[in-house]
Amino acid sequence: VSQSRYCHGGKGKSGNYYVSHVGIVLENNGNSIDMIHSSSSSGVRVDNTNSETWKNYWSRKLLFVKRVIN
Fold it and tell me: Which of 3, 6, 53, 66 is most buried (most C-beta within 10 Å)?
């Protein structure tokens, strides 16, 4: 299984984008992605791109996904 990481963040006062969080893609089945990450409020967790959490929060913050292992 090839793995990718994803990064999200926002736009700073200077107008530049910044990375504030990273995670690892566990599985990409073509219709959705399972990703593992950690948060200060929830600890380590796995989220899916079809979840309400993804749709309401993460999807707006995603900067890029990059393959790091083949």
Answer: 6
